[in-house]
Amino acid sequence: MSLNGMTRNGEALARRARKAIPKLMILVLLALWPSQSASAQEGWESLGPFGNLDRELVRDPADWNVLYSLSSHEGVFKSTDEGISWRWMNNGYSVAAIYGTSALAISPTNPDELYFNVFHSDRYHTEVLGLYRSADAGESWQHVWTADEAGYVRIKSHIAVNPDGVLLANMEWHDGLWNIYSTLGRSTDSGVSWQPVLDSTVSVDALLFHPLDPDLAMLAGSNVVGTSTDAGMTWSFHSVPIPGFHRICWLQVSPQDPCLIYVASRSQSGVEEDTGGVFWSSDCGQTWERTGGIEQSTDLGVNFDCDPVRIYLNSRCSTDGGVTWQEYARPPRCLGCGFLFHPEDPSWVLHATTYDGIHSLLPDGLTWCQYGGGGSPSDLAISPQHPEILYVAAGEGGVYKSTDSGRTWRAKCTGLNSDRVWHLLMNPDNPDILYGYDDFLFKTADGAQSWRALLPRNILISYLIMDPGDPRILLAKGNDKAGDESIRLLLRSTDGGETWARVLQDRFIWGIAFHPHISGLVYLASSNPPLMVSTDSGLSWAGYDSSIPDCDTPDQLLFDPGDDGTLYCTSYWARGFRKSTDWGITWFNPCLDDPFDDLDRMDTLADPSRAGTLYCSNELNIYRTMEGAARWKLLARDLGHVKFVNRQADGGVLVYSVALRPETHDANWGLFRRVIYDYPPVILQAGFGATRLSASGGGQLQVFAIVRIFPETPLPVEAELCYEGIPTGIYLEDHGPPDPGQPQDHLFALLHDVSSSGWAGQYALELIVRDASGAISDRWPGLTSK
């Protein structure tokens, strides 16, 4: 059988090859030499921070706008705008070796002087344990005292600094056997050396110097409050009538009156009904009164600038000095570790919580909004018109917004009366309109300045998708929770979520996908039938005579933006991908080198401007394919879920991911960004030489191609034949540049014997080139022949 499709280009290439190959061996060797093209912008950039401001919170006494906070794993962060945005102050200590911090303090008269303590470390880096000091407002740090890990002499918690530079710290030591003892340490040389000033019978759970008197120090622990009038050298104690099995854990003293003291106790019995409370004294601890009856207290903050004082706990507050109490509408979920107030604005309250970031009290006085160091970023939305504007859904605290490409972030959660927001969806025609949800569905129309709920609280939403042809049309998958009953729903809105109609009910629904270019076309993965189709944007549905093999629960459906009839399906149970190239009629596993053998949840996004290019993450790693899921390249390890992919004006591919932060021992969540600059080899010309093949006798296949290889392209480059879309493992040989004046253009050629049992009758060939990354490729469909 004569091979149809022979081109004039093929004959010309053959003649050029015969003339050029013998003369260009040196050029070939030079062309094959690896290119040194590594670029700094190929790496991942860590944004945030998120989920890390979880220890203490202190304020610059000379500038109320300046705050410092401590992260258990990352050290110190600084804010110059009252906690709205934060900067990592990590010059001078090893973040990789820190496993736990415990104390942060600032000098009351020299705000450039700060201290923080490392309590736990990597066992191989115990030299980082101990005290760090900054003399330039946190810009740099010096390790001034090293804890004795062998003897367990270390600062456990709480550091206090007086105007004369005297430091007090809650310390502990190990006796070498089984006993750990607590004591109070004192330093007069900026923390370089320490002397014990209390025996082990006194515990220290709160510690401070009074701002009016540099010699007046106070502590609290167990059931006593201690006072020192000589900067911590000697102490006197007064007992507090707290219930049994309780201990005093928080201490607040009026800045104007050292004799006005508030303490709070916490139960040590583990019994929820075992109540503690808040006690106060107006005579320096001689006598005590208990405020109105309250339950277990977690953290204590007293705003002494108000009359009567306002008292804040983790779960409730009092605006009348403790006579009456109100529960928060949305309290922080973790234990507290500090409150801050503003002397000129009684409504301004910040609250630091362990493992849950910093919260701000909203104007209603009862709702907390995660304000800085939000935990667990889980989703991302970016304005297409202004890519420097980013929104992040923080699963532990609401929504954050950045207007400078992620360098600084501001909490935007007014109206989000929910514990968390895990997902975001943006209206591409109007980026000020966003939807946030995790069970409860919220909407903003003013760029996240305010949010409001769209559905009753019994309707729980787990997935939301928008019609790309008409952003007013939304489909939502969820449940109607009525008592112990739960009804599965598919809801539809045609007015941007203001009103909703039920279009499907009592049906298992998994993946949903709108076609990116065909108006109204949407597919739905369900059960019996397994695939459903709508041509009117989800108003009516029809069963589709198709099943996705080995995919009992298709988690995600995805159309290829560059190939109208191509769909992808991912499934945890199928351990990878299924693909259809005929509008979902038939499906197959496209992966030749399936890397998805260990996965929990798969997130897949498509490059909007290149057919067959997908980005996939599976809880652990991020992969990319540029061959329609046939081959995959590992882009990043341990960077979680890819959340946004877009091609920039300069050709770079912008990729965002949310993940556990590796620099903090996988302890906190973060947002990561990478720009990938593709320099793919490009097929300029390709064709067949003068060749004849027959179904019975076979023959010789001759293929030629001119491939442009850029200096930035990772070498080596390979050209491979595909048969009916499947790579054959048959490669063309690179003969180097046939024209010395164009060294970027390489001649690839192949002479291949085809047996009679090989390609017989009709066949379709395609040429693919890829570089050393294993993912960048170009196709030449002009070789297709039947």
Description:
The protein contains 2 helices and 63 strands. The longest helix is centred in the N-terminal third of the chain and has 13 residues. The N terminus is likely disordered. The strands form 15 sheets. Strands 56, 57, 58, 59, 60, 61, 62 and 63 form an 8-stranded antiparallel beta sheet that branches. Strands 1-55-54-53 form a 4-stranded antiparallel beta sheet, with no helix packed on it. Among the domains are: 133 residues, Sandwich (Immunoglobulin-like); 133 residues, 7 Propeller (Methylamine Dehydrogenase, Chain H), CATH 2.130.10.10. It is mainly β and 786 residues long.
CATH topology group of the domain at 8-37 and 681-783: Immunoglobulin-like
Percentage of residues in DSSP E strands: 35-45%
Query: Briefly, what CATH class of the domain at 8-37 and 681-783?
Result: Mainly Beta
Average pLDDT: 80
Q: Bin the helical content.
A: under 10%
Segments where pLDDT lies below 50 for 5+ residues? Answer: 1-42
- The total count of helices amounts to 2
Give the biggest sheet. 8 strands, antiparallel
CATH superfamily grouping of the domain at 8-37 and 681-783: Immunoglobulins
Shape: elongated
Gyration radius (Cα, Å) is 33 Å
Distance between the termini: 11 Å
Structural class from helices and strands?
A: mainly beta
In total, the number of strands is 63
Proper CATH architecture of the domain at 8-37 and 681-783? Sandwich
